[in-house]
Amino acid sequence: MTAEKNKGRKVRREIIEWAVIIGIGLVLYLTGLHTQVIGTLQGLVLKTGIIKPDTSPGEVIAPAEYNFKLVDQEGRLLEGSSLEGEVVFMNFWATWCPPCIAEMPDINRLYGELQEESDIRFILVSLDEDFNKAIEFVKERGYDFDIYQFASPVPMVYESRAIPTTFVLSPEGEIVVKKEGMAKYNSESFRNFLRSLK
Description:
Layout lengths: L1 H30 L2 H14 L14 E2 L5 E4 L4 E3 L7 E7 L4 H17 L5 E7 L4 H11 L5 E4 L14 E5 L4 E7 L7 H9 L2
Parallel strand pairs: 4-5, 5-6
Antiparallel strand pairs: 1-8, 2-3, 2-6, 4-7, 7-8
């Protein structure tokens, strides 16, 4: 009888534990907080430095395309042609994307390290349908970089099946990095790589 009681208690405890886990998951999902929680957990993985972009010297992925237009959070137009001759760090992201949220603090730190270097441009392109949501997201988190949305079709060379996707364009007009998925960018080796392109 005692063994049956213990087994019954164990089963009830497991049911309660699963109900709590499912309940927490539902609350996070229904309130929209699951994206932030998942992004935070993925951010912890990024801090290890395991996931980083490939910066193999001399590798050219494709010619860059500058025939596009962007609009920033202030409504100012940016012609893609104005980026020619510069090192460009171009990141495609969205507020509903946990890996994007995970890598944003690191990208903001990278921007802080390099913002004084006028020939390295940061172009963070929101893929949110509602650009105002992206603007609020950046403001709430206190990020320093400008964000953009496309005001023209996206050139085929920048299309990707994954987000985030990050491209690095050289001053010679070549895509020298294409990283699909999150990565740790604010490292000494990556900063030196960007500077070496100038």
